[in-house]
């Protein structure tokens, strides 16, 4: 059997705190792309996996969704976390494979199609104005991540689902606990039981919401999910709750991370900030560049269904691979000067939304929100600078700046 190559640098993928220091993280990823683009990772607390760091290899694996499946290990968690998810029966879109994935995805697809996005544009622009106005009221200093960036996309996706505004705070808290389960500030506790409590609370909430929407259907996304049928049969309770959960949580946390990270990037690259402010026509390209720069979803996992190879490295059936989107989006073979923020980067072949059949369902909405927010903010932003050190979420899955203290002047 060919010896598995394990480069020490690949341990970053199973080190949540590695994502809190972007400089050191990218040093490790740059080294891996050049020296061990397919590296075995076997560290205490995690089931072993292969780390994939090159853009082309990530794309190839994403394309072949029958060879590399999402089930049974779609995200990197500890061995205990893997067992916990399977015991609870979590079955979101990211846990599913075709044909089930295709059928279930269709339930929400119409809500994110171009026509639906055009209809939603006015409301998103209105919410962008409201939250920039709130930012003005908070000035001259605020924690941009926690006081501004988390709230705007939260309002958008919760309104789409039909969740009452009184519950927005609860949804934010539970989402931060779920995605921040490796972060000392956000995690609910240290035991598996304590950390599973957030997920169980989400399930309890959406169980009640589903029952309400089935008894009294409305015109929101939660009602569409609750009353959906596949081949004439309603979704199971666990599938309904899982669908609500992934929309509610991922539908705002990833976008807020990009808005926070995008603001930080503009502060750190004042030439690009001024360039964009002087030409808002660049905003669609700048939006894509912010998404590439932040890459809020750090990685997904896939499992090989038969023996294969990646870049000549044997991968056995049943072994898992980690697709590092963060690394792929800095691949020197794909992006010119990848560590330079360029608000006019074109083409921009980032894969922050994934690729293939599992391409992010809410990508169009995320793009719209980022575009709308900065289109509203930049003409009014007279000055901005850091008022303290940014802090990042410790994670192996979704994250970005969790605190971004800034000092600014807004008209």
TrEMBL record:
Cofactor(s) required for function per UniProt: heme
GO function terms (MF aspect): cholest-4-en-3-one 26-monooxygenase activity; heme binding; iron ion binding; steroid hydroxylase activity
Domain of life: Bacteria
Membrane-spanning parts: none
A GO BP entry: cholesterol catabolic process
UniProt keyword annotations, A-Z: Cholesterol metabolism, Heme, Iron, Lipid degradation, Lipid metabolism, Metal-binding, Monooxygenase, Oxidoreductase, Steroid metabolism, Sterol metabolism
CDD domains: CYP142-like (cd11033)
Pathways per UniProt: Steroid metabolism; cholesterol degradation
Coiled-coil residue windows: none
Protein name per Swiss-Prot or TrEMBL: Steroid C26-monooxygenase
Lineage: Bacteria, Bacillati, Actinomycetota, Actinomycetes, Mycobacteriales
């Amino acid at each position: 059997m060919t010896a598995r190559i394990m480069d020490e640098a690949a341990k970053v993928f199973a080190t949540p705190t590695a994502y809190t220091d972007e400089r050191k993280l990218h040093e490790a990823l740059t080294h891996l792309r050049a020296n061990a683009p397919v590296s075995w990772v076997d560290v205490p607390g995690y089931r072993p996996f292969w780390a994939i760091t090159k853009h082309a290899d990530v794309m190839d694996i994403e394309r072949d969704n029958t060879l590399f499946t999402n089930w049974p290990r779609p995200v990197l968690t500890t061995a205990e976390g893997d067992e916990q998810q399977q015991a609870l029966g979590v079955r979101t879109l990211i846990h599913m494979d075709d044909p089930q994935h295709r059928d279930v995805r269709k339930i929400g697809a119409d809500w994110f199609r171009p026509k639906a996005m055009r209809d939603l544009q006015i409301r998103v622009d209105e919410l962008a104005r409201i939250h920039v106005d709130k930012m003005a009221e908070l000035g001259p200093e605020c924690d941009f991540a926690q006081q501004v960036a988390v709230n705007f996309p939260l309002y958008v996706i919760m309104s789409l689902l039909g969740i009452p505004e009184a519950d927005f705070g609860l949804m934010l808290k539970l989402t931060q606990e779920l995605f921040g389960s490796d972060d000392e500030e956000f995690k609910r506790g240290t035991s598996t039981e304590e950390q599973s409590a957030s997920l169980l609370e989400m399930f309890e909430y959406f169980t009640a919401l589903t029952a309400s929407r089935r008894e009294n259907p409305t015109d929101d996304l939660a009602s569409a999910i609750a009353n959906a049928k596949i081949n004439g049969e309603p979704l199971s309770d666990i599938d309904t709750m899982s669908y609500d959960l992934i929309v509610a949580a991922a539908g705002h946390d990833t976008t807020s991370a990009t808005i926070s990270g995008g603001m930080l990037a503009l502060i750190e690259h004042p030439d690009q900030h001024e360039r964009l402010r002087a030409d808002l026509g660049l905003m669609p390209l700048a939006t894509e560049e912010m998404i590439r720069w932040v890459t809020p979803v750090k990685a997904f996992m896939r499992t090989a269904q038969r023996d294969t190879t990646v870049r000549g490295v044997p991968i056995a059936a049943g072994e898992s691979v980690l697709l590092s989107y963060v690394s792929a989006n800095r691949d020197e073979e794909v992006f010119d000067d990848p560590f330079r923020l360029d608000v006019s980067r074109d083409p921009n072949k980032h894969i922050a939304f994934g690729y293939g059949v599992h391409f992010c369902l809410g990508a169009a909405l995320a793009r719209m929100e980022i575009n709308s927010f900065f289109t509203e903010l930049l003409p009014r932003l007279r000055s901005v600078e850091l008022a303290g050190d940014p802090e990042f979420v410790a994670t192996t899955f979704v994250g970005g700046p969790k605190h971004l203290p800034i000092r600014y002047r807004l008209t």
